[in-house]
């Protein structure tokens, strides 16, 4: 416990005891009296608040009354470790942009921390493995109740991580928050490019495009009659770079666009290619 140790020279004359009065600097509340025996020349005041300045005055006491007050003695207790953060949330980024990141946010419950310790563990069958420190911030206190954030840029795709956060100062470290989990995303494919009308007849339209990705599991071709309202038209296998639409009518304008997809999501769409069938 935080304490202040006091010593003094014994009073002369008849002394039945001492009264030590303790007050807190800057406060107007009455001083706290502490009774001590006549032979006391020291006292350890324990259980005090951290980061607080205490003021002490000593009186010798006998049946006739109190002596004049001693000189004032003051001492500031160490700040003590900060309060632990709460409300930790780990939010993984969406599949695009890539690579993935995990953004942590938490509530700062202390006004005396020097920064925060962030630890991470890799998942081990649904529970955290060994936690290791990935960051020790030196951000000054934002104030009790404020939200603090940190972005972990060192994660791998398609991994499950656990996080916990503590605050610290020169006096020590708080307890850690309860651990939270985040699952990082994989990489979505790059969008196809240079969609073109390669050939057109009265009964068919042939399309070509550049396959810019290596991780797609297929392509989604969409068709529109006005360039504004789109619907899925064909799902095509990976590594496809052409398609012939044999279900067209003459004197109708068709609009096409294509995107790559995989289990992590969809790419952006390609450019739009249009043609009016003669």
What is the makeup of the main sheet? 6 strands, antiparallel
How many structurally independent domains? 3
Rg (C-alpha, Å): 36 Å
Q: N-to-C SSE series?
A: EEEEEEEEEEEEEEEEEEEEEEEE
Q: Which residues sit in consecutive blocks of at least 5 with pLDDT less than 50?
A: none
Describe this structure in words.
0% of the residues lie in helices and 51% in strands. The protein has strands spanning 3-7, 17-24, 32-37, 42-46, 53-62, 65-66, 73-76, 86-92, 102-108, 115-124, 127-128, 132-136, 146-152, 160-169, 172-173, 180-183, 193-200, 205-210, 218-224, 231-237, 242-245, 253-262, 265-266, 273-276.
Topology of helices and strands:
Elements (H helix, E strand, L loop, with lengths): L2 E5 L9 E8 L7 E6 L4 E5 L6 E10 L2 E2 L6 E4 L9 E7 L9 E7 L6 E10 L2 E2 L3 E5 L9 E7 L7 E10 L2 E2 L6 E4 L9 E8 L4 E6 L7 E7 L6 E7 L4 E4 L7 E10 L2 E2 L6 E4 L2
Task: State the main characteristics.
Immunoglobulin-like, 3 domains, five-stranded antiparallel sheet, 51% strand, rod-shaped
Short description:
With 278 residues, this protein is mainly β.
């Amino acid at each position: 416990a935080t304490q202040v140790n006091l010593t003094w020279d014994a009073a002369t004359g008849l002394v039945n005891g001492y009264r030590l009065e303790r007050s807190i600097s800057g406060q107007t509340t009455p001083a706290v009296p502490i009774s001590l025996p006549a032979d006391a020349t020291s006292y350890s005041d324990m259980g005090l608040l951290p980061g607080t300045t205490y003021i002490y005055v000593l009186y010798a006491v006998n049946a006739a009354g109190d002596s004049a007050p001693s000189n004032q003695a003051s001492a500031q207790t160490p700040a003590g470790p900060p309060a632990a953060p709460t409300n930790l949330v780990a939010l993984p980024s969406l599949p695009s942009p890539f690579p993935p990141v995990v953004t942590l946010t938490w509530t700062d419950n202390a006004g005396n921390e020097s920064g925060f310790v962030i630890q991470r563990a890799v998942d081990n069958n649904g529970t955290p493995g060994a936690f290791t420190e990935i960051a020790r911030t030196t951000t000054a206190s934002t104030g009790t109740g404020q939200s603090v954030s940190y972005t972990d840029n060192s994660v791998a795709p398609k991994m499950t991580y656990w996080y916990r956060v503590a605050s610290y100062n020169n006096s020590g470290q708080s307890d850690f928050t309860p651990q939270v989990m985040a699952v990082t995303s994989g990489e979505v494919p790059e969008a196809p490019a240079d969609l073109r009308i390669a050939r057109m007849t009265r009964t068919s339209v042939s399309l070509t495009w550049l396959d810019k990705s290596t991780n797609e599991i297929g392509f989604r071709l969409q068709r529109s009659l006005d360039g504004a309202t789109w619907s899925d038209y064909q799902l095509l296998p990976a590594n496809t770079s052409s398609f012939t639409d044999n279900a067209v009518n003459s004197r109708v304008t068709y609009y096409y666009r294509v995107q790559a997809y995989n289990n992590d999501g969809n790419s952006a769409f390609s450019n739009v290619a249009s043609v009016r069938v003669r």
